[in-house]
Design brief:
5 helices, alpha/beta, 5-stranded mixed beta sheet
C-alpha cells in the first residue's frame, strides 16, 4: 500500500509518502513541506497548498491519502488554517477518486510510539527508526506526515475488518424477521 500522509497547515503543510504493508518493513518514498507565505492572501495560500499536494499526488501516485483530523485548539485562527488546508488535501484526493482516511493526533502518536501523548521529538525519533532514515525529517510537520502514513498502513487492515464485520452484522439484523 502506498500512502500520502498530510499534516495540514496553512504556513507549512507536511507531506510524506510511505509504502508497505503491516508487519513488514516500510519504505519512505518522499517527504517534504508545502509552504505558503504568511503575508499572502488566504485564497492564494490555499491555491499554493493545492498545487503542492497535486504535485505530490502526480509524482508518487498514492493509493490512499491519510490526513490528520483537525482537533480543537485554543487558537481559533490556527484551527481555521489547519481545517482549510485539510479540506484542500481531501478535495485533491477526492478529485482523483482516492480514499481519504482521517486519523487523530493521539491515534497517530499511539500507533507510531505506543503513547498517545508522545511529543514531537518522540514521534520524529520513531519515524526515523521505523523508516531506517539516517536523520529525523525536518521540520516536525514532515515527520508528522510520515507518521500519518505509517499509522494508516498499520491500522487500515484492522479498520477494514471492523467495517466488514459491522456491515455483515447490519445485513444480518436487516434479514431477521420482526
Amino acid at each position: 500500500m502506498r500512502v500520502l500522509g498530510v499534516d495540514p497547515g496553512l504556513t507549512r503543510c507536511g507531506v510524506g509518502v510511505v509504502e508497505g504493508v503491516a508487519g513488514r518493513p516500510l519504505t519512505m518514498l518522499g517527504v517534504g513541506v508545502v509552504r505558503t507565505p504568511v503575508d499572502a492572501e488566504l485564497g492564494l495560500r490555499l491555491v499554493a497548498v493545492e498545487r503542492g499536494i497535486e504535485e505530490w499526488l502526480d509524482e508518487h501516485r498514492p493509493e490512499v491519502v491519510a490526513v490528520e483530523r483537525v482537533f480543537s485548539q485554543h487558537n481559533v485562527s490556527t484551527v481555521m488554517g489547519t481545517a482549510q488546508a485539510s479540506a484542500v488535501a481531501m478535495l485533491c484526493a477526492a478529485r482523483r477518486g482516492l480514499p481519504v482516511a482521517l486519523h487523530t493526533p493521539s491515534e497517530v502518536k499511539a500507533a507510531v510510539t505506543g503513547a498517545g501523548r508522545a511529543d514531537k521529538a518522540q514521534v520524529a525519533a520513531m519515524v526515523t527508526r521505523l523508516l531506517r532514515l539516517s536523520a529525523p525529517p525536518k521540520p516536525a510537520d514532515a515527520a508528522d506526515a510520515l507518521a500519518l502514513a505509517i499509522c494508516h498502513i498499520w491500522r487500515a487492515p484492522a479498520q477494514n475488518r471492523l467495517q466488514q464485520a459491522l456491515a455483515q452484522h447490519a445485513s444480518a439484523v436487516k434479514g431477521r424477521p420482526s
